């Protein structure tokens, strides 16, 4: 069963159908991604949100075929332009990686190889995925570095990652991801290492690049404020499952799932720095040992007996929303 | 850079000086060499005379001073046994040892690195387990036994390789080198394999451990996400990060094999330094032992220096300071 948002009639750029990625650890099976479906059209930005451990990064790695033992894609389809990447060969995936789909990793401090120059690590992408000669590649790298706001780019190409600050490394990683003008960028918390002003500047730049190339983006973040500015659609993950999906405006204005409501309420108010954050009470349950019924029950203000008995499934709600809740919020309800 | 070199040179000199003190003390406390030079039926007067000639009647500090001065002048004295300059004796045999060790180290590298990378990248595979079991054998089998087995199989049974000696050599800047002749190569294979076995195993295990460590790093995954081939991820990105401890051990093993190739040289009757050392120890041939020890110390110090330079070539975060 897959209920997803019907945004376009033509084929989406990427469609996940019931993706399941599990890690078989000594302590038990971690169902990090357990039945995730969504669609992204060409030129769209989708926000993938949820608390830590929700499975956001694992979704990203699964799409690129970067899940390593003890992890395994147990089932589902990853349709990129109609081709199922879950069944693609290693060779095929290598062609796609970096060229058609690229990824900005979560931690900029560890994403770059400490023993190669920044220039070399950028050049590598173009060597692999373009026919440009050495000089043209260098110019492209310089241009890209400048566009992510790194000055004296030509000099910096010769520098090593340890000579860069965290924020600069983050920009280099973003530059690498955009270099081959991929059709889909998976940006895993791309701006966490940056301070707020630079954050919005980089996000604008990424949006610009994407718009220029007609590319799409999966923007992974736990920061709903960022997503609400950038994304066309939002998918909310909890314990490896989609709990709510819909158009950004519909979700932000009036979510139907109590978890989404909680996430929105915990966005800090930028005008009132002293305001206490309304964090969702309680903790994410142990993913190896999920409770019967709804995974959010222990933390949910609306929970009733049924929630302990029966697992809610995704159902269409008001406006564009789809969510998995027995007692969804009605439009305008707090 | 220049300051660094000067500092390093002073350091190396200091180390060599300390070694000279130790060598001198060792020599002074192990037997009286005067009996090596006098005839068996020498009179007391003759012995005293010889003692004076050798400077052994002087107080220790004076003896050491003379020892040091002659070391610095490159004068290591004459072998008591061969009546030739000790330095010449060693230098005649050094090329044989060094070339055997170098060939052994090349064998070790060529085998251990690819296998170590493979085993580190695929720790679960059957082949990796096989490689690791093999490396355990390589470490635990005694060299002399392996040497004898190789001789039995390849020389005695199948007659593929000769069992002893160095074969033909050719002159190169006054040094006699086997590697310049086909026959020399033919002779060097078995001893070099024997000598390389333990080093291969150690380097392989180091490489594997390093690769396993590096494999967990984010930048490896990021390289894959860029579309880099598996081979380049492992070698360009992985191995370079895993190799530093391997380089360290390589340096130590290199020095070690040059210094202590004795057993292999004995089994294959390889005319290297090791055999000379054993003979000299038996006969308390002091000057030869002194040259040998000082030379080994020098080799270690130089290798160490080169290893440090190599570090800086590999890792930009390590600087010459
Ligand atoms: N290699 C792995 N081995 C075992 N478990 C893993 C592995 N990688 C991820 N997991 C588990 O999968 C779950 C989802 O992880 P994931 O990294 O996708 O979360 P996330 O939503 O990206 O969180 P964060 O916001 O902290 O980045 C977590 O419970 C995590 O412990
Ligand atoms: S199903 Fe019940 S517990 Fe789960 S979110 Fe809805 S109301 Fe809360
Ligand atoms: Mg993550």
TrEMBL record, chain A:
Q: In the record, what terms sit under GO molecular function?
A: ATP binding; ATP hydrolysis activity
Tell me where in or outside the cell this protein is found: Cell inner membrane
Task: Provide the membrane topology annotation.
Answer: Peripheral membrane protein
| Recorded coiled-coil stretches | none
The record ties this protein, via PROSITE patterns, to: ABC_TRANSPORTER_1, ABC_TRANSPORTER_2
CDD domains to which the protein is assigned, alphabetical: ABC_NikE_OppD_transporters
Which UniProt keywords are listed? Answer: ATP-binding, Cell membrane, Membrane, Nucleotide-binding, Transport
**Alphabetical list of InterPro entries matching this protein:** AAA+_ATPase (IPR003593), ABC_Ni/Peptide_Import (IPR050388), ABC_transporter-like_ATP-bd (IPR003439), ABC_transporter-like_CS (IPR017871), Oligopep_ABC_C (IPR013563), P-loop_NTPase (IPR027417)
Recorded hits in PANTHER family, A to Z, give: DIPEPTIDE TRANSPORT ATP-BINDING PROTEIN DPPD, OLIGOPEPTIDE TRANSPORT ATP-BINDING PROTEIN APPD
Q: Which family does it belong to?
A: Belongs to the ABC transporter superfamily.
Q: What is this protein called?
A: Peptide/nickel transport system ATP-binding protein
Taxonomy-wise, where does this protein's organism fall, top ranks first? Bacteria, Pseudomonadati, Pseudomonadota, Alphaproteobacteria, Hyphomicrobiales
UniProtKB/TrEMBL annotation, chain B:
Q: Which SUPFAM superfamilies match?
A: MetI-like (SSF161098)
Any single GO CC term annotated in Swiss-Prot or TrEMBL for this entry? plasma membrane
Q: How does it sit in the membrane?
A: Multi-pass membrane protein
| InterPro entries per the UniProt record, alphabetical | BPD_transp_1_N, MetI-like, MetI-like_sf
Assigned keywords, A-Z: Cell membrane, Membrane, Transmembrane, Transmembrane helix, Transport
- Its main localization is membrane
UniProt cross-references to Pfam families, sorted A to Z: BPD_transp_1, BPD_transp_1_N
- Which Gene Ontology terms describe the biological processes this protein takes part in? transmembrane transport
ABC transmembrane type-1 domain residues: 94-311
Localization, per the record, is:
Cell membrane
Can you tell me where the transmembrane regions are?
12-31, 100-118, 130-155, 184-204, 242-268, 288-314
Q: Which PANTHER family match?
A: ABC TRANSPORTER PERMEASE PROTEIN (PTHR43163:SF2), DIPEPTIDE TRANSPORT SYSTEM PERMEASE PROTEIN DPPB-RELATED (PTHR43163)
UniProt lists the family membership as follows:
Belongs to the binding-protein-dependent transport system permease family.
Instruction: Give the protein name, as stated in the record.
Output: Peptide/nickel transport system permease protein
């Amino acid at each position: 069963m897959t209920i997803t948002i019907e945004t376009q009639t033509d084929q989406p750029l990427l469609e996940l159908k019931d993706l399941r990625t599990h890690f078989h650890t000594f302590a038990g099976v971690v169902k990090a991604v357990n039945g995730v479906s969504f669609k992204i059209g060409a030129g769209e930005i989708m926000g993938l949100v949820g608390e830590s451990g929700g499975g956001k990064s694992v979704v990203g790695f699964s799409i690129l075929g970067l899940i390593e033992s003890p992890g395994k894609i147990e089932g589902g389809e990853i349709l990129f332009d109609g081709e199922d990447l879950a069944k693609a060969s290693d060779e095929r995936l290598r062609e796609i990686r970096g060229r058609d789909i690229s990824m900005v990793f979560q931690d900029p401090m560890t994403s770059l190889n400490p023993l190669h120059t920044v220039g070399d690590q950028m050049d590598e992408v173009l060597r692999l995925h373009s026919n440009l000669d050495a000089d043209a590649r260098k110019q492209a790298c310089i241009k890209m570095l400048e566009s992510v706001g790194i000055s004296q780019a030509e000099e910096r190409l010769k520098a090593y990652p340890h000579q860069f600050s965290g924020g600069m490394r983050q920009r280099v990683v973003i530059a690498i991801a955009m270099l081959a003008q991929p059709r889909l960028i998976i940006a895993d918390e791309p701006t966490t290492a940056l301070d707020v002003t630079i954050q919005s500047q980089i996000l604008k730049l990424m949006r610009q690049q994407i718009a220029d190339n007609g590319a799409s983006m999966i923007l992974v973040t736990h920061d709903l404020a960022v997503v609400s500015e950038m994304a066309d659609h939002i998918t909310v993950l909890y314990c490896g499952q989609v709990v709510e999906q819909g158009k950004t405006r519909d979700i932000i204005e009036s979510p139907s799932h109590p978890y989404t409501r909680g996430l929105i309420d915990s966005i800090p108010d930028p005008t009132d720095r002293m305001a206490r954050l309304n964090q969702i009470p309680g903790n994410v349950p142990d993913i190896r040992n999920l409770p019967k019924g709804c995974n959010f029950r222990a933390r949910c203000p609306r929970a009733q007996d049924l929630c302990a008995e029966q697992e809610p499934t995704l159902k269409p709600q008001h406006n564009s929303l789809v969510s998995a809740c027995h007692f969804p919020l009605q439009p305008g309800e707090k | 850079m220049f300051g660094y070199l000067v500092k390093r040179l002073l350091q190396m000199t200091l180390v060599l000086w300390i070694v000279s003190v130790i060598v001198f003390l060792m020599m002074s406390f192990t037997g009286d060499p005067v009996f090596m030079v006098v005839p068996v039926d020498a009179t007391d007067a003759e012995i005293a005379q010889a003692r004076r000639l050798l400077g052994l009647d002087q107080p220790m500090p004076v003896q050491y001073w003379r020892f040091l001065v002659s070391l610095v002048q490159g004068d290591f004295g004459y072998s008591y046994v061969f009546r030739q300059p000790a330095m010449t004796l060693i230098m005649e045999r050094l090329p044989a040892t060094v070339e055997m060790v170098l060939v052994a180290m090349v064998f070790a590298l060529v085998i251990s690195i690819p296998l170590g990378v493979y085993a580190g990248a695929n720790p679960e595979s059957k082949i990796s387990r096989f490689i690791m079991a093999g490396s355990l054998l390589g470490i635990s089998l005694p060299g002399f036994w392996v040497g004898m087995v190789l001789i039995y199989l390849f020389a005695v049974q199948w007659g593929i390789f000769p069992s002893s000696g160095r074969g033909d050599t050719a002159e190169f800047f006054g040094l006699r080198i086997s590697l310049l002749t086909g026959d020399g190569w033919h002779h060097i294979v078995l001893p070099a394999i024997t000598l390389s076995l333990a080093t291969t195993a150690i380097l392989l295990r180091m490489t594997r451990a390093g690769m396993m460590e590096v494999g967990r790093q984010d930048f490896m995954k990021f390289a894959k996400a860029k579309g880099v081939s598996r081979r380049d991820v492992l070698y360009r990105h992985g191995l370079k990060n895993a190799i530093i401890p391997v380089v360290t051990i390589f340096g130590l093993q290199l020095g070690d094999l040059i210094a202590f190739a004795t057993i292999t040289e004995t089994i294959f009757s390889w005319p290297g330094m090791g055999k000379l050392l054993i003979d000299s120890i038996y006969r308390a041939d002091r000057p030869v032992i002194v040259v040998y020890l000082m030379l080994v110390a020098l080799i270690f110090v130089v290798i160490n220096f080169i290893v440090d330079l190599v570090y800086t070539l590999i890792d930009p975060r390590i600087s010459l300071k």
